[in-house]
Amino acid sequence: MKIAILSDIHDNVWKLAAALDSLGEVDTLLCCGDLCSPFIIGQLANGFGGPIHIVFGNNDGDLYRISQNAQPFEHVTLHGHYFQDTFAGKRFAMNHYPDIAGEIAASGKFEVVCYGHNHDYKIEPVGSTLTINPGPIMGYNPIKKIDVASTFVIYDTQTGEPLSYQVGPSGEVSPYEL
Description:
14 strands; 4 helices; Purple Acid Phosphatase, chain A, domain 2; alpha/beta; seven-stranded mixed β-sheet; five-stranded mixed β-sheet
């Protein structure tokens, strides 16, 4: 099973469209928050037909309209600020914040914990748990005030390997390595 993980879209519809177009054989999509505008729900739902699980971030301001926009799409589920599930025998948890994700990972209850918020791509183990910050689809780090790669991750439950990708300036998607 392949699971796409993305975060921090911040209304970058162009980079999101390129990422969604490249998902191919992905089974499930996890979004770690900061969609921003409610219209992003429609773009996600129309761009990916499999199950979509979303947690809210600190920039998802209009939760009422985000929720309204999600209602017509049976394959889109909003989970508030926390999500957990098992995919192909691997236990996943997701929220938006790195500090909370670190504590969840340290519990040892999950194989994979996903998060976003700080716009820093990072994949690292915390004990026996793999933590994944897929980086920002937005392509900007507002804390450092610099452009960064527009990145996302596809996790393969069979191999346990996260594969990282970047969306280039013209919408081309290629493997990403630091």
